[in-house]
Amino acid sequence: MDSTIFLRAHTERSKNTKKRRAKNHQKPESPTWADFALVFDCETTKDEKQSLTFGVYRLLRNVNGCYSEVREEGFFHADNASHREIRLLARYADRNTADTVKDCPKRICVRTLQEFVEKVFLPNALAGAVIVGFNLPFDIARIAVNARKARRLNEDWSFVMSRDIDPRSGKVRDNPFLPRIKITRKDGKFAFIRFSGASMCSSKTGKRIKPYAHGRFLDLRTLAWALRNVSYSLDSACKALNVPGKMGHDPAGRITPKEIAYCRQDVRATVGLLTALRTEFDCHPIDLKPERAYSPATIAKAYLRKMGVVPPSQKFRLSPRIQGIAAQAYFGGRAECRIRRTIVSVVHTDFKSEYPTVNTLMGLWALLTAKQLRIKPATNEVRTLLDNLSLEVFDREFWKKLTGYALVRPDGDIFPVRTCYSGEESNLGINILTANEPIWLAIPDVVAQTLLSGKPPKILRAFRVIASGQQKGLKPIALRGKTKINPRTDDFFKVLIESRERIKQDTSLSGDEREALGYFLKILANSGSYGLFIETTPKLVREREKTKVFSGESFFSTTSPIVEEKGSWYCPLLSSLITSAGRLLLALLERAVTDVGGSYLFCDTDSMAIVACKDGGLISCPGGSHYLPGPHEAIKALSWVEVQKIVARFERLNPYEFPGSILKVEKDSLNREIYGYAISAKRYCLFTRNSHGIFVESASSHGLGYLYVPNLKFDERAGAPTWVVEAWHYIVSGVLGIPRKRPSWFKLPGMMRIAITTPEVLKVFQARQSHLPYRDRIKPFNFVLSPQIHRLGLSGFPSDVDPKHFTLVAPFTVNDSRWLKLDWVNVHDGKRYVLAPINQKRPSEASPALLEDLITLYEIHAESKSLGPDGMRCGWHTEGLLQRTHVTGCGRPRFIGKETDRRWEQDEDLSVLFPMLPEYRPNETARLATAAEFQDQIANFSVRNLARKAKVSPATVQAVKSGKRIRKTTASKLSRVLARVEMPES
What we know:
By secondary structure, this protein is α+β, with helices and mostly antiparallel strands.
């Protein structure tokens, strides 16, 4: 397979840009928790506009480390609420008392929305109170009087909170004396929320000169995600933290006594959740405001800073070239399907805390806490290490030698390969690679190749990264106030895992304490051991920005419409080693399995499903090297005893004080027969069988979880939505020939439920709504539906559209009987379309794929990264033992930034539909042009003949073949010659 290879690059922005970014306003320090908290919740209409009907708020005072004093409780209603609705609120307020403390009014206040915003919300927020809600951006969008696109390029929304009358013109205007609120959604988990505008005017010019403080906005959904790594609803969060939750009531979308009680209980639940999350947050001795705890990685960074660890970019003098070498060697986790569409019995295994474990094995804590990092040439050392490679891979001391990088010339070697295996999107596979140009890889990947192929690759150069000294200022700390760690003498990653094991056996702690502390240590270990070292955020810029690009041996300057902002702990030198070592663990497991004649069904980052049954034997499988009577091709299933021996071998790699293997057996699969079925990478399920049928034990949501099916719950045991479990049950039952019942949701159109998080989506509705007041329009953070168009032969698309630029959205409704009747708009051009069933579709209409159609396509989704048993490209109906693809790199590699293709994720953010992949290419200038466009055309030309015809030097033609930049006059000469030649010369 000839293909272009994609390689990750390290980029640096221009010096002027850095200076602009370095500018900072000094902000006064504020306490971790504010003196007051304003908690509020909104109820809305049930139509697509989701406009405010009324809301409930509580003003709380911070007393003795808890927001226990309710100083004021009140209701607020939409400014256009009817007299009847206002009377209902007033009557409820008269008949009930506020939950306030003794010295505060017991009467529940009833206010208009304007009164609430101008007399309660803004005064308290500007005075430093923390504004609290669950899914706070949604509620802020309800109480705003208008929403506009923010002026800054990478900011999303600017919410106008108040309006007044212009004394000069007498017209209604945005209140210039009150701030706006800007909300920028980072992803489906959190958003940045702040005040904007200025609070003082110059007496001379009348211009506002003093900016408002940013304010404190705490979304409890985000804080719960940061502390627990779980995306909760309000009700599920309350259950998880043992807090009284929501009232059983189906919202009516209008003001009723029951609706008022329901919203009031929501606020009580939010206050209870605030108290519980505050208690949990305060267990952490870190310097971090709760509203800035955006993710588990944020908590991990705060702990590192508290220990005095200085971020790598601030203390290591690493050249851009070294960073570019490490970036080129960066690849993500290994995920593949090895046996396709064939049911086999398996033992499911995974590595214990894979990334913390490899960090400990390689001693990366010493690198992270070093005073400086030293780059030591190690070409001969690495060659010798590979030549003598044997079972020493199971020696812990061996792993300390892997902290380095090697320049290799791929020649039929098994390496990570990022390329377009099918379609236009790049993907990562562990495949056979041949390439003319050398590439840099982390040493663990080079060791993995030697293990898997039995021969070392050709090493051109290599170096190791060595810690030099230890930085000053490291301080001991107690993790969550319990587990002590001294960063000067302890390995942070090792202590986390060991402490978690000890806590499981600690009888001095209550069951709840053991669970909470153990769960936290697991989250901290995983979030602090990898992702923060490769954190980058792609952002658009108004004008193409000068960027220096470094990747391996390549360096060039270019301009790009997308820049990557680096996280504070960004260090590809560490991140590439970590993921590479994770892939080495899987390669070592694969080698251990194949050495005894076994195989595996799939692997996924840190896990592998080994083909095995109780007594072992042969299992029918196309492509296997064994035969069963028939004859049928078969593979060997290992016995449980053989699997136990493999698991035991990994005890030697256990770096922790507690005994046992770092390879674990999941799902109790060494005590009962478990079967597996895989379709492609990350698309698999595990199940058991008995006389009554099958029972799904584990179901992958990848490729399905992004779809919306109303009114179905989550299956905790299988780790997937109930409808996904039903889909896998249906698929596997069909493979086994078991009678199966079509799920009721099969007849529904395939839809995604997406939040309006960016102005680009909202603007498609505004063309017909711009004349309406804000409350009567579709608003930011409302949900919309987006149908999956029937793609078979592109028959579901209107005849006059480009399928690549056709994404329909319509206001969200849970009523699936209305879906085909909604007013659908294409987000790319704002044109309106009608949905119709495929058998009734007109040329101008679109047809959604039914969920039944999508499940049918899902179960034949090809594993494009592999070849079939016959050595041909894997197709829809390929079955059996797959082979690795042989990729031959052609042309120059393409250099890319962070990959953000999230289409198959279970997320309600529109970014899942629009992947952003920064790609960096040398710019054309007034004199120079890229030669890449000519490479394929002249690949078979004689250098001398082409040079003679184009009247250029042979060296110039050779430069073109190498993809180097050439003068534009030279490019014109080549173009004229190539235009006259019909066939390339031999």
